[in-house]
Amino acid sequence: MKKPVKPARENISPSDLTFGLSTCKRCLWVKYWYKVTSPMVMPLVGTLSRLQEEYFQGADMPTIDPGLRAGKVTKWSEFVKSAPIVIDGAQTRWRILGKYDLLSSNEDGTVGLIDCKVSESERDSGAFYSPQLEAYAYALEKPLTGKAVEVASMGLLVWKPTHTMGNNPDNAGFGIYQKYISVPRNQAEFISVISQFIDVLEGEIPEAGPTCETCNFLTARNALDLL
Q1: Residue 122 — very low, low, confident or very high, per pLDDT cuts 50/70/90?
Q2: Residue ranges of domains in the chain, CATH in brackets
Q3: Of 14, 52, 134, 149, which is least packed with CB atoms within 10 Å of its CB?
Q4: Whole-prediction pTM value?
């Protein structure tokens, strides 16, 4: 596969820092140089995420978790875009572009960043999602345009479905277990991860990931054409 003169996209999605490097670097490379991704169908994700965001609009931060600074959720579901990422003093062509879930305006002038999850996965840990949240924080603190803000806290707000509610089929629902997971700031780790990410993108096309379902399907599918 020939590498184009210029990548098809130069804006890095924060979620790719969590899932892209840990799944298949080949698919990641193709996504940014050719803007080709495998189709994904997750019909309930958008609906459940919207319900979370609507529920916490205007919420006092200490009611979400007592350890959070005094403030209110004042923004939600907004895109942020960073200035070009600087690695070891050198400006790269790459920027962060993503849409956060919830953002608070704190009484001390800082902001709090919250990423909403509806999941029952044990993988929902601060360490796993730290690069993604730090990417949003990077864009907020080093925006391409507008005023920079200091991100004082980051965290995951997890809803885990637990049981059904109601016997009326026309008014049924489900209960949830809610927990807030604080994610400590770790800018040094973020720079390390984003550096690896950019190294992958700037290099030649990587080998397929051995457990990548997309690459394994394509390999098997292409083999049929040789029969």
Answers
A1: low
A2: 11-164+172-220 (3.90.320)
A3: 149
A4: 0.90
